[in-house]
Write a structure and sequence with these properties.
The structure is a homotetramer of 296-residue chains. In chain A, β4 and β5 form a beta hairpin. In chain A, the strands form three sheets. An eight-stranded antiparallel β-sheet of chain A has the order 1-2-3-6-7-8-9-12. With 296 residues, chain A is of the alpha+beta class. Helices cover 23% and strands 38% of the residues of chain A. The mean pLDDT of chain A is 97. Chain A is globular, with a radius of gyration of 23 Å. Chain A has two domains: 131 residues, Urate Oxidase, CATH 3.10.270.10; 164 residues, Urate Oxidase (Roll). Chains B and C meet through β1, α1, α2, α5 and β12 of B and β1, β2, α1, α2 and α5 of C. β12 of chain B pairs antiparallel with β1 of chain C.
């Protein structure tokens, strides 16, 4: 009989939608999370024999998430660390795992004490991968759509028999920014994750506005450099950014000019640029990135 | 042979993604629309005999939309009226149609001249239905998620053998507001649609925050009354609002209390409340609402 | 103060995901439904005063759905009628409502007794609208994608200054069939809904294959005529069908011909044809169609 | 100034929707693909200086895909190899890349010569990663939903203070099978990919039906073992499978029993089991898996 070997595996409860309300005073606050817990360790018997003696039920993982939300949640990252410590501390055979959260941003309606609207276009993300005693903590966001209506071009690329694209020195540059950054391991403890998140997001948005973009690649590099320069707690940052094409509409059949005014926003296909930038000299953590969709 | 009769019908080009950039000065502006054009009129021959002599090609409708976007677009509503006038004016057999637009909201990054991010959580909508010489213009929005963390309850409902829900005088009230309002026919000409939109949206959000909600129904009525009271150009308003349940997590098995702190945000099933409110004495326009999903 | 009037309204519990297993013998069977219940009647006090004395809780509606699923479900339509009879019979102020179901189709893996896979590309739908003592029962499906790789063309359409589309006598015709048909009121009782569904679906698919299509409109008429001809229980049928464009790829820059071989399948914009066909002499039921998305 | 280093990166054109019709005879055939091409190599100058001399335009990659579709496509895998050979052969600085395809399955309506419907519930996938001269070819599928209505249980798991789940020896087991398998490097050339795909899919479905499942983990291991045993061209297989919970509806408040008949199909949270199985002694290829979502 063929021999097969169980290698990488993890399991748990995905997408626990936890809303926590702080109501110590009449001025409430809320945290809105989508939490996934997955355990790694010695689970071979479950796969090979259906012996569940080590299988902390995914239902138990769910219960733990909701029970832990009874205490204040200072950030998604802090909450994930707490879950990781619990599961790896409580069960001898749980050597690690992957804990992930999405956070949805709310703002007060007016300045009301207990009424809110979901305001953030982007989804904030956090992933903690613990494996063999080391942690990798990766934060980020997705779904932030940005556009420059000028100061972007694309020229000087190679031409072969399949090249028909004309060069342009004035086009729309638009993308949905998806980015993830990995924190320096010794910076995690006590870090103000919310402030850092806000600062990195602002750095990315501001850098996007600056200067002339010769290629989306160049813009991604500029954003990465600005983030790493300004945030010494970040060791690595990845971007996965579609080039959301806005094609100039050809109005000449209708005897109309179109000096950069009317565009057709296309769906598919789209350009897709993925890149990783690392702080010089920082350690790598490739295994921690496995399973994060759409990044290379 | 059975006789069948062609009754209501319309056709056209759906979801034309038009982005228009105003670049008269260095400070650009942009309009981002998803436009659908559908014609009504004498199209029987196409259905019955495949005779296309009356079928203004959907491709032609698309071209017209992009060509018309060469001129300034003051609002989605104004753009739809222009399309309607063109198609019903140009082709004798086109007696009406349905033109619809979604608008996606962008804001400047910082106060940058030509860099923007997609900021609006909600999608603005506009529908113009022209039929038999009369117009109905319906504006609205969808996807605005709001939440009150207190000042909401649900008591006093009938109990039968299938009732298990306990009464509560303190719960989370959360919904995705989808609303559409119909303008008074003689108010459309020259109306500042953008200002009216902003005002109606603000009225709805502010009303949501006010007072104690005995039922989502009561809240919808309050929002409708406030909109109609403050906007004499609105004859009718509809809401279609899910009751997005946030269930108090039962932490008692873990010897924890839960005084309104930890909630599980459920997906399905959800409550769903749909209601129409009309200004007393205003004319109805039921046919115009057909085909707008999820409203009654 | 402005007077506003509550007009059309309904409320209930949406998207109850019920799976029912028949296990009287070792050969199991299953029904997989997504059921929505909404009540109409005298609910003014809830809206106007927050008085819930008439508000059968949406949670109670959910419980009723699951309790009723304890008995065999012979078809989605039969299940909706049972719910309608219950709610309008039990509560004096409930004069009607709207009950809807989606059904997802499963097949046995091999011919296994209790193992299944979700096999149907289409979603079957059923809607029962009861209002003022009359019922309208509307069945249908959505999401059935069909394609003809030849025997379709589009010529003879009018040309204006915005027309650039070349005529073609050989193109791909592809659409996602969404259709809904209304049963003759006196045919509902005792009808074999599953057999009728299968027969109507087969009629539509077979008719799609037949002959040369001069326009999608002509094809829809042919499908409608075939359904109404062959099914005397159907009084009315609607179609809402995108023209899913497959554009011939221009390979001439690469010195390649393209005799109908390589196509680009576009997303947006798309043609959209909506049409209603009624059996000659059958009664109309326009109000029942309100709120069904995307049909005219 | 902080030094940052560009590490992993790739770019290209994503989601090119190619439909190819074989029409040599009156009996047509079609291939429906969604193709992504991304290049790796020496692209540093684009990122660092906006120098595009090496940047084969994503538009050129798109053109190449459509041009290559002019020739017969025997399988998605074969098409990806052809693209990889072209780009790495044509441009000296392109050392590798990632080419991916989704395939959508169509069947004939009846046995018609040129009319088809989209029949496959699952999406077939293929990914070719070429890096540093070595290829990894990974095929698979997603979206195949399967269910066993009995012969599944979950007992013997550890209980801690957060455990409330009761043991059960008869439950519904349902999942959406997502799987990817990696071909042995020397088996790729000349392999009948379509036949292998059909055989692996059948093996997975058949194994799912067999025996009593003590845990979804055990079932995944059984499926993996069967695939690897029966297909010596497969070196590795991964599964990512949600445990789609079907909770027994509690009907006791209504004085009804529920002997495994009525279930509530929940959305979120859900169990999630991910596992990798390797043929004993086969080489690993971890880097090739990066960026495939939802697998560990």
């Amino acid at each position: 009989m063929t021999e097969i070997r169980l290698t990488a595996n993890q399991y748990g409860k995905a997408e626990n939608r936890v809303v926590r309300v702080t109501r110590d005073t009449d001025r409430h606050d809320l945290v809105d999370l989508n939490v996934t817990s997955q355990l790694r360790g010695d689970f071979d018997a479950a796969f090979l024999e259906g012996d569940n003696a080590h299988v902390v039920a995914t239902d138990t993982q769910k219960n733990t998430i909701f029970a832990f939300a009874r205490e204040p949640i200072s950030s998604p990252e802090q909450f994930l660390v707490k879950l990781a410590d619990h599961f790896t501390g409580e069960f001898a055979w749980v050597s690690g795992g992957r804990w992930a959260a999405e956070e949805f941003g709310w703002s007060r309606i007016g300045d009301h004490d207990h009424s809110f609207y979901r305001s953030s276009p982007e989804t904030r993300t956090a992933v903690l991968v613990r494996d063999g005693g080391t942690d990798a903590l990766i934060s980020g966001f997705s779904g932030l759509t940005v556009m420059k209506t000028t100061q972007s071009g694309f020229v000087g690329y190679p031409r072969d028999r399949y090249t028909t694209l004309p060069e342009t020195e004035d086009r729309i540059l638009a993308t949905d920014v998806s980015t993830r950054w990995r924190y320096r391991a010794d910076a995690v403890d006590g870090l103000d994750f919310d402030a850092t998140y806000d600062s990195i997001k602002a750095t990315i948005m501001t850098t996007f506005t600056q200067g002339y973009s010769k290629a989306l690649q160049q813009t991604l590099h500029a954003m990465a450099a600005a983030v790493i320069e300004a945030h010494d707690v970040v060791d690595e940052i990845k971007f996965s950014c579609p080039n959301k094409h806005h094609f100039l509409s050809d109005l000449s059949p209708f005897e109309l000019d179109n000096p950069g005014v009317v565009f057709y926003a296309a769906d598919r296909p789209y350009g897709l640029i993925e890149a990783t930038f690392q702080r010089e000299g920082a350690p790598t953590a490739d295994a921690a990135w496995v399973g994060i969709a759409g990044f290379c």
